[in-house]
């Protein structure tokens, strides 16, 4: 797991929302895909599509990217094009404000922060525990890498699992 690449993705998403982009791409990796799917499930981004260096075609009625279309076939994954694969993300806005207003790394490549369930309960309640500030804003989320995949902090408390703290989303 490369936290350096994840830090680049976080800064890219911050810059894309500040620039009011509707559609952006990040490098394809399993960690990035799982985090983006978790962000999509929580409603921070609208769509996640795997594709190549060119953006996937947009659905004519819905205006969201689609993985396959009758007129556009996506190039199959091979050894020669694996490095150029991208994840194309649709960003969401509500009343001209970005839904994903800020995403920041908690664990750094030089300092990885692992949290158990008891400390995670304190964080969900809004208290500071193990160098991690509590969740105080209503829309704030904290994402952890666990044995069950990438989960939000409240899900980790429900499932009673701890893990590596990845990022905080406002």
Automatic annotation (TrEMBL):
GO terms for biological process: translation. One of its GO terms (molecular function) is structural constituent of ribosome. The keyword Mitochondrion applies. It is found in: Mitochondrion. Its main location: mitochondrion. GO terms for cellular component: mitochondrion; ribonucleoprotein complex; ribosome. InterPro entries: Ribosomal_uS8, Ribosomal_uS8_sf. Keywords: Mitochondrion, Ribonucleoprotein, Ribosomal protein. Component of the mitochondrial ribosome (mitoribosome), a dedicated translation machinery responsible for the synthesis of mitochondrial genome-encoded proteins, including at least some of the essential transmembrane subunits of the mitochondrial respiratory chain. The mitoribosomes are attached to the mitochondrial inner membrane and translation products are cotranslationally integrated into the membrane. Belongs to the universal ribosomal protein uS8 family. This is Small ribosomal subunit protein uS8m.
